[in-house]
Design goal:
- The chain is an all-beta fold and about 210 residues long.
- The protein has one domain (about 10-205): Sandwich (Jelly Rolls), CATH 2.60.120.
- Strand 11 (about 185-190) and strand 12 form a beta hairpin.
- It has strands spanning about 10, 15-20, 35, 40, 45-50, 60-70, 80-85, 100-110, 140-155, 160-165, 185-190, 195, 200, 205.
- The strands form 3 sheets. Strands 1, 2, 6, 9, 11, 12, 13 and 14 form an 8-stranded antiparallel beta sheet that branches. It has a 4-stranded antiparallel beta sheet with strand order 5-10-7-8, with no helix packed on it.
- The termini are far apart.
């Protein structure tokens, strides 16, 4: 990968991305955000997975987990997850970043996935001891269970449920951001029938 160049590859089975992206705002304090016409865009150069407009209200209350199948060409990487409520298409402003509100977040360092304590874990809450991390094998596919902090939200009819995923976050949109601009590599997220990456939401049945 040449200096100042980034590559992304998307297939029906997987999505790969190189980092750092040259368009990221780096040490300006915006991290993975991209400046567009003087406005920071938090999702222009990260992975996002967005639902269709919801046909009905969806109420979510409780703990959340992202089951992520992924690999890296490095011996370690990081996953930063945001669950976002994206406003209806009719409330979006052309040429501006998608209007949305971040609801909750989750994190996992790949080398710490091996420290999961099965006895203390719950279906929606994997428990990691973080006591004996081990490097991952480059280009090997792993299943990562990423806890996303509990939340309570009603996604209204016409809104979209969006999951943002990156190897860093942004001080502009994430309190206490973790962007240092030092990592170089390529990560791949898998989303085929053999590696069905998905987020598990605690949906409350309609009353």
């Amino acid at each position: 990968m040449a200096a100042g160049e980034t590559k992304a590859m998307v297939t029906p089975a997987a999505t790969s991305y190189d980092y750092p992206d040259p368009d990221w705002s780096h040490f300006s304090g915006l991290g993975t955000a991209v400046m567009e016409d003087g406005v920071p865009n938090p999702v222009r150069k990260i992975l996002t997975f967005t639902s269709e407009p919801l046909p009905d209200d969806v109420e979510v209350i409780g703990s959340i987990v992202l089951n992520l199948w992924a690999s890296s060409d490095q011996t370690d990487t990081d996953f930063f997850v945001r669950l976002t409520d994206q406003l209806p298409d009719g409330e979006q402003v052309p040429g501006m970043p998608p209007r949305a509100r971040m609801l909750t977040r989750g994190w996992l360092k790949a080398s710490h996935a091996c420290t999961k304590d099965e006895a203390k874990s719950l279906p929606y809450r994997p428990y990691y001891r973080h006591d004996s991390p081990k490097p991952i094998e480059p280009d090997k596919i792993y299943k990562f269970e990423i806890e996303v902090w509990a939340t309570a939200c009603c996604f209204l009819k016409g809104h979209r449920i969006r999951v943002d995923l990156a190897c860093y976050d942004s001080n502009a949109f994430d309190f206490g951001g973790h962007y240092y601009g030092l990592k170089v590599g390529r990560d791949t997220v898998y989303h085929d029938k053999d590696h069905p990456s998905h987020i598990v939401l605690p949906v409350i049945p309609p009353r």
